[in-house]
Design a protein that fits this description.
By secondary structure, this protein is an alpha/beta fold. The chain folds into two domains: 245 residues, Aldolase class I (TIM Barrel, Alpha-Beta Barrel); 65 residues. It is built from 14 helices and eleven strands. The strands form two sheets. Strands 3-4-6-7-8-9-10-11 form an eight-stranded parallel barrel, surrounded by five helices. Helix 4 links the parallel strand 6 and strand 7. Helix 1 packs antiparallel against helix 11, helix 9 packs across helix 10 and helix 11 packs antiparallel against helix 12. The chain is globular and about 55 Å long.
């Protein structure tokens, strides 16, 4: 039974990874419906929150049906992160999560996200200060290390636990790897199997099928799995994994009607939350994923990704059905 403080996540929880420009409320609503046990928001800049930047503040939007829900923050300055923690707490999430894993240059090269993996003492100090700044449970998402020569995750996870975090999600790559190569789950397992670790350890990286989820659950003994890229355009993956883990049976893939209905609902929620212009524009990254593997989709895809007219997109989705 995995628990983050008093939040009971069940025997083998499935977590939705925080993904920039993906894990917004419309997408989270679908993932929740299709089996996600714990979800995290897109990461939010501590500096943006403090400056009251509209994009950062909007990411604090969470809804009752999403619970339990964690809000993820990132930054390089300890005082800013403490202040951002206090502002985040006012949004009333269940968990505050710290991003120590984002590998993109504009984040990591400023010492935020995975950049802090080059300064473990600062990472530990920042975590301790954030824990002290809130009454909410704090979790961490991180990577194995900065590069091949600094994969200190077993020691780092223990030190973060010692300063008060109550859960950790580990992506099985270094920052230098970005998303290339294969995720190393042996090191994630080493964290879980460290006898001093008492908090739940969630594995992340390369989980793209129910079969792999079950295999990694049994092989690496993690408390749960965090699903990221494989859920994009595929919110059903959570229920598919749960069903396979419980029964050994593979659920049939969603039909083209199921896909079109989910995509339409996603579009409508996106427009409602972001406004028509932004809602339509930001859905474009999802269309190909919703219909991946569907033959004769190319002509529809071109219409969906090139049109900025909401009615035209609705009509195209109805044609697909």
């Amino acid at each position: 039974m995995a628990k983050i403080r008093d939040i009971d996540l069940g025997d083998f929880p499935l977590l939705l990874a925080p993904m920039e420009d993906v894990s917004d409320p419309p997408f989270r609503a679908l993932c929740k419906r299709y089996g996600a046990d714990l979800m995290y928001t897109e990461f939010i800049s501590s500096e943006g929150l403090i400056r009251d930047a509209a994009k950062s503040v909007q990411k604090l939007d969470i809804f009752e049906y999403e619970r339990p829900i964690g809000i993820q923050i990132f930054g390089y300055d300890i005082e800013s992160m403490k202040r951002a923690t206090e502002l985040t707490e006012q949004a009333n999430p269940d968990i505050i999560d710290i991003n120590y894993g984002c590998p993109v240059k504009k984040v990591a090269c400023k010492g935020a996200g995975a950049g802090i993996l080059q300064d473990i003492p600062k990472m530990v100090k920042m975590t301790a200060e954030i824990v002290k700044s809130t009454h909410l449970p704090v979790t961490v998402k991180t990577r194995l290390g900065w590069d091949e020569n600094s994969k200190y995750i077993v020691d780092v996870a223990e030190r973060l636990q010692d300063v008060g975090i109550e859960g950790i999600s580990i992506h099985g790559r270094t920052r230098k790897q970005m998303y290339k190569g294969e995720a190393d789950w042996e090191l994630i397992a080493a964290v879980k199997n460290n006898s001093r670790m008492k908090i739940p350890v969630f594995g992340n990286g390369d989980i793209d099928s129910p079969q792999k989820a079950k295999e990694y659950k049994e092989k690496y003994n993690v408390d749960g799995i965090m699903v990221g890229r494989a859920s994009i355009g595929n919110p059903w993956i959570f229920n598919e994994i749960k069903h396979y883990v419980a029964t050994g049976e593979i659920l049939p893939k969603p039909s083209i009607i199921d896909r079109a209905n989910a995509c339409m609902e996603h579009l409508e929620m996106s427009v409602k939350w972001k406004g028509e212009t932004l809602g339509v524009a930001e859905m474009k990254r999802h269309y190909t994923n919703y219909f991946k593997g569907i033959s004769h989709f190319k002509e529809y895809r071109m219409k969906l990704v090139t049109s900025f007219d909401l009615e035209e997109i609705r009509e195209t989705l109805l044609w697909i059905k």
